[in-house]
Amino acid sequence: MARPSKKRVSSRNSIGDKRAMILRAATRVFARNGYFNSKVADIARAAEVADGTVYLYFKSKEEILHSIFDQNMAEAIAAGGQLIENLDDPREKLRRIAKLHLERLGADRDLAVVFQVELRGSTKFMEEFSAAGFAEYLALLRRTFEEGQRVGVFRKELNATVAAKILFGALDEMATNWIISKRNYKLEPMADVVMDVFLNGVSA
Amino acid sequence: MARPSKKRVSSRNSIGDKRAMILRAATRVFARNGYFNSKVADIARAAEVADGTVYLYFKSKEEILHSIFDQNMAEAIAAGGQLIENLDDPREKLRRIAKLHLERLGADRDLAVVFQVELRGSTKFMEEFSAAGFAEYLALLRRTFEEGQRVGVFRKELNATVAAKILFGALDEMATNWIISKRNYKLEPMADVVMDVFLNGVSA
DNA sequence: CATGAATGAATGAATCGTCACTCAGTGACG
DNA sequence: CGTCACTGAGTGACGATTCATTCATTCATG
Q: Which of A140, B111, B145, B152 has the fewest CB atoms within 10 Å around its CB?
């Protein structure tokens, strides 16, 4: 049918990254309709491939969602690790992580929606995903906080796990609200306010 | 089939509250399987009524979810309002609200799952619901915070809306983590830690 | 080179199970 | 009897997944 231009598109940008195209398309579709309301056919159309092609790259619709999460979470954690490895002050480390957190989500609204909304939409996903990436991220925050306690900049009587959750929760809420909000503001600067309150609250 | 005892049950406790029974059953079913994986037939079975009966009380499956939210949110906000009306210190007001927040969720794990997980599972729901209840709840936190700024106990340079979000996000994360966690701890005491850090962070 | 056999990526119509919702009926009660 | 709350088998639509088929590409061969 409308196949004349397809070949060119194919050879220009998709040799080998058809999988990535499908992932990008799926992120968009999931973000707009929600995971359960998204048809595989919708994803295929958005990615400009046939329905069946999706199954050459992914075992199931669910695996697509998993892949979106896995890929981005791995990237984020790696980026976070790198970012803080030459820093000394734990407070500064946390500031950087927070900024990166909101920066990444703020840079791609569709991805943010999938992370803040769609991934939360089932206990099953929550448990699977939390086991994988969220837990690791929380652990990064916790370890950094503990380091701060050791160095003496954070109150020693606080439970580091809880402190990590407070920080994560606050950032998470910034992101969720940003998505829902109709107003159009930058997400990443919110990190400063959050860190101001948080660091003030936990400093020795 | 197993209908012998049904009539008695019916007349003992359900005259007029069959609707409530269905809501309670639905909360349990949604919490265990997720909204989209729950069949109306599951809810009916759990409520010990026929599939069709569900439709005598609710227009659709979606309306059941709405009703769960509306009812509980209204109750919570009312309870919160009452709780703080005779208090003066805005810090104490926030402490009480936070405690109530986690107390209510901690008292009913199924309800907590629906609130923390299922209700978040689609942008559509998020927007509808946020317009209604969440926004009102956030507004309650914000107004209380502003009061504290006026009285001079909270730092005046902080944006009250953001402060409210930080507090809400932190509490929300406590609840979400409590649900996911396999360990068995009390949710409500977490409010103290959160408020300790938060109040410390925002106090003038 | 030209040929055509082999490959496997890509297609999209068809399949098949699953549910939300309907409605014709049942029986309890006054 | 009439009413009415309730029942649950049936229906229609939908959508994830499959698979027979197409076709571009590669490459061994003459």
A: B152
Q: What distances in angstroms separate CA B1 from CA B4, B5, B6, B48, one per listed residue?
A: 8, 11, 10, 12
Q: Which residues of B touch A (CB under 8 A)?
A: 31-32, 34-37, 113, 117-118, 120-124, 126-127, 130, 158-159, 162-163, 165-166, 168-174, 176-177, 179-180, 190, 193-194, 196-202
Q: pLDDT (tens digit, 9 = 90+) per residue, B111-164?
A: 999 998 888 876 667 667 666 788 889 999 999 999 999 999 999 999 999 999
**Cβ <8 Å between B122 and A172:** no
- Residue A88 CA to residue B151 CA, distance in Å, equals 39
Number of Cβ within 10 Å of residue A50's Cβ equals 12
| A119 contacts on B by Cβ (under 8 Å) | none
B42-61 residue pLDDT tens: 999 999 999 999 999 999 99
CB contact under 8 A, A123 and B173: no
Percentage of chain B exceeding pLDDT 70: 87
In chain B, the domains with their CATH numbers are: 6-57 (1.10.10.60), 61-202 (1.10.357.10)
Say what the pTM is: 0.89
